[in-house]
Amino acid sequence: MRGLWVKLSLTFAGVVILSLLATSLMIGLATAGEFRIYVAQGNRRWAEALAPALANYYLQNRGWDGVESFLEPSNPMMPGRGPMHPPMGMGGAAMWRMMGHRFIMADEAGRVRWDSEGTWMGTLLPEAVRNVGAPIRVGDRIVGWLVIEDTGSLSDPSTQFLGRVGWAIGWSTFVGIVMALGAGTLVFSRLVRPLRALQQAARRIATGDLGTRIPAQDAGELGEVAQAFNRMAEALARAEQQRRQMLADIAHELRTPLGILQGHLEALIDGVLPLELEQVAQIHDEVRHLARLVEDLRLLTLAEAGQLRLDREIVDLKRLIEETVDGIAFQAAEKGLHLEVELPAELPPILADPTRVRQVLMNLLTNAVRYTPSGGQIVVRAQDLGDGVQVSVRDTGIGIAPEDLPHVFDRFYRAERSRSRADGGSGLGLAIAKHLIEAHGGRIGVESTPGEGTCFFFTLPRSETVRGVSPLRWAARDVA
Question: Which of 219, 388, 431, 447 is the most exposed place for a label (fewest CB within 10 A)?
């Protein structure tokens, strides 16, 4: 996390510094530009205020001869200023320079008659400079121009003002950068702290410590990440527990038939049991049970991995149900059960693998026969739901306890632990049925009341809901 913290801090610092510097530069340029406009306007108003006095001078003297003495700073040329006396014997030019101003006066021909700096004396005043100043009018006639400018020296009040503004902007920028970097450091430290905890927890989980959790105290996205991580850790812990339980269950399921086979074979080898057809038949039954168990495990593994292949086709579900019920009818009659089939006159076709659907239905019927006492009833129904077809198998058996209902579709789960493997099966049938139905895009469920019976049901989509999907896309969904 140190690398992340450094990257975030450097990135934030760069953005803050560049942003504040750009903002300060824009503020400084805008302030300087607007202030120069303000000063220029003030100088023009000053020149316009002095222009009538110069016009009177022109009328009284019939020209501009001797105007230099009139423009000395000791004369009261600015309304409201009063007379300004040259300090320490300064001349006019030095006095105006000390005040930070430059006075330029040109005659009607544009020739400079007075320049407080003395550099343009006798030259023609450029038109651009002339337009900045104020014309001197006598009647309707322009007899000269007066231009007042700032000298731009260090003693110039405008320069001093802009310097103070620049100093304030610079210090404000520096303080803003320091405060922003301090706040960013605090924010990033709080941001990186839960990420560091997440990193350490992930490393512990990678080493096998699946009990690691993160205190989800922060609100917002970081809190959601912590909660998601904890849910992931819990899911991994459950998966590991299920894996261990599955291995134990598989070992238990295999140990019993293998023990029986071993016992029979050793008895036959030692001559304890005669080598008769009955003994061979018992061994054959155990071998068949092992084969069924291995096939169920293979099928369940493929289904959970999403690699179970379904050979889909348009299926007449009504006929499939009737044929499957006929296959279990003898066992139901032998146990003294009343088996009913309630089907509508027509059922919509479905797109499914008929072998897998028959396997699911046969599993539900077998369970109903196994757990329904003699004299009970089993009813098979089917109904059109509009977007799919629902098939249910209801019995009047012993029922399932409420605490067992959430686990009936778990592998190797038996609601009645006291039942033997021969009576209760391996506990894989319902888990396989669930995956087969879900692989078809349907769902399976159960409702039960202890002592009154159980109803298993599953739904399959109509063929219209999947029409237009190419066989290649179906194969991709079924295999990949």
Answer: 219
Q: What share of the chain is helix, strand, coil (3-state, %, to 5)?
A: 60, 15, 30
Q: Rounded to an integer, what distance in angstroms lies between the CA atom of residue 347 and that of residue 341?
A: 14
Which helix (H) or strand (E) covers residue 331, if one does? helix 317-334
- CA 465 to the chain's CA centroid: 33
The helix (run of H) or strand (run of E) holding residue 144 is strand 141-150
Check if the beta carbon of residue 216 is closer than 8 Å to that of residue 223.
yes
Q: Within 10 Å of residue 157's Cβ, how many Cβ atoms?
A: 12
| Contacts with 344 (C-beta within 8 Å, 6 or more apart), sequence order | 318, 382, 383, 384
CA distance linking residue 247 with residue 242, whole number of Å = 8
C-beta of residue 464 within 8 angstroms of C-beta of residue 454: no
Q: Which of 83, 77, 69 is nearest to 46 (CA)?
A: 77
Q: How far is CA 10 from the centre of its chain?
A: 24
Structure confidence by residue, pLDDT tens digits, 201-211: 888 888 888 88
User: Are residues 102 and 150 in contact, defined by beta-carbon separation less than 8 angstroms?
Assistant: yes
**Is 0.70 topped by the overall pTM?**
no
Side-chain-side CA neighbours of 59 within 13 Å: the count stands at 12
CA distances from 57 to 53, 271, 409 (A): 6, 153, 115
**Which residue in 381, 353, 364, 349 sits closest to 440, CA to CA?**
353
Confidence bin at 474 (pLDDT 50/70/90):
very low
Of the listed ranges 143-147, 305-309, 458-462, the least confidently predicted one is: 305-309
